[in-house]
Amino acid sequence: MTLTLTAAEQVLADNFAPWVLDLGLTVESVDTVDGHEAVLRLPWSDRLAREGGGLSGQALMAAADTATVIAVAAARGGFVPMTTVQQSISFQRAVIGTDVLVRARLTKAGKRMAFADITMTAEGTEETAAHATAVYALLG
What's 22's DSSP letter? Predict the structure, then answer.
């Protein structure tokens, strides 16, 4: 079953804590053909900036985690219960004053585990701002 963009937005609206929804994430695309991928947009907000004006690492971590859930939902054709087992991130350059595109691609989606590679870029550039990996336990 294919996860539509509308269904992906509904997964986002129905399955995350209010503070995650306050980030303003939107689903830009889902791809269930080439690697089970989701792209989310994290809109720039001064509220998410740290001292010095760069987007906070906490916001980027939460966005990476959320994008991975949408990618798993794309692979499964809808939301299934899951939990983060591991997440690691490397911050490579500051994002200041622009949206971030968060691309989560599943590198393996098994029956009980999913592995993801997440790349975050400032809108308008291909240069990586942050790179994360994540492992999820699929509970349903």
Answer: T
Angle at 100 between CA 17 and CA 79, to 5 degrees: 40
Please name the residues in contact with 139: beta carbons below 8 A apart, sequence gap of 6 or more: 80, 81, 82, 83
Global pTM reads: 0.94
pLDDT tens sequence across 35-65: 689 999 999 999 999 988 899 999 999 999 9
* Separation between Cα atoms, residue 94 and residue 55, nearest integer Å: 7
Closest to 68 (Cα-Cα) out of 35, 32, 20, 116:
116
Distance CA 30, CA 12 (A): 12
| Cβ atoms < 10 Å from Cβ of 26 | 15
CB 83 within 8 A of CB 136: yes
Letter for the amino acid at 6? Answer: T
The span from the CA of 111 to the CA of 137, in Å, is 9
> What integer pLDDT is reported at residue 67 of this predicted model?
98
Reported as a single tens digit per residue, the pLDDT across 57-70 is 999 999 999 999 99
